[in-house]
Design brief:
The chain is mainly alpha-helical. Helix content is about 80%, strand content about 0%. The chain has helices at about 10-30, 35-50, 50-65, 70-90, 90-110, 110-120, 125-135, 135-140. The longest helix has 18 residues, at about 10-30.
């Protein structure tokens, strides 16, 4: 028998973290569908003022957009995420956004922009370490 006190109601924070987990999993399994939980997470993160979750949701949404072939939307989302990662002083996040923007420019057919953006990403001292940890990049290369 369950009483009202036994029912767990997730907090906005728990819901936000679950949405982000779901979005990352979907990005690997069904990349086009990952935008759905990423958009919901983006809305919740902005509402709660959670900059780290906000930038992660923008990034996931951007990768999903890139899978969908919408390079312009992807670049806009990655650029917004990049700004927040800069605010957070998160070098790995900045590197990821720059690499993703470079991919998007490449798919959009602008090789010069792609090369310039890749060089900005590779300017980070730990870029090789970041590349080794970037599962999303390996997923993207596999699709």
């Amino acid at each position: 028998m369950s009483t009202l006190t036994d029912i767990h109601h997730p907090t906005v924070r728990e819901s936000l973290q679950q949405l982000l987990r779901d979005a990352w999993i979907m990005l690997e399994l069904q990349p086009l569908e990952a935008a759905i939980p990423a958009r919901r997470a983006e809305h919740l993160a902005r509402r709660k003022g959670d900059n780290r979750a906000w930038t992660q949701s923008l990034f996931i949404w951007g990768v999903s957009s890139l899978y969908a072939g919408d390079t312009h939307e992807a670049i806009a989302l990655f650029s917004r995420a990049l700004a927040v990662y800069r605010f957070l002083d998160d070098e790995q996040g900045q590197w990821s956004c720059l690499k993703a923007i470079a991919l998007a420019w490449g798919y959009a057919g602008d090789a010069a922009q792609a090369l310039e953006t890749h060089s900005h990403a590779n300017a980070f001292k730990r870029h090789a370490e970041f590349a080794a940890k970037a599962r999303w990049l390996h997923w993207f290369a596999a699709h």
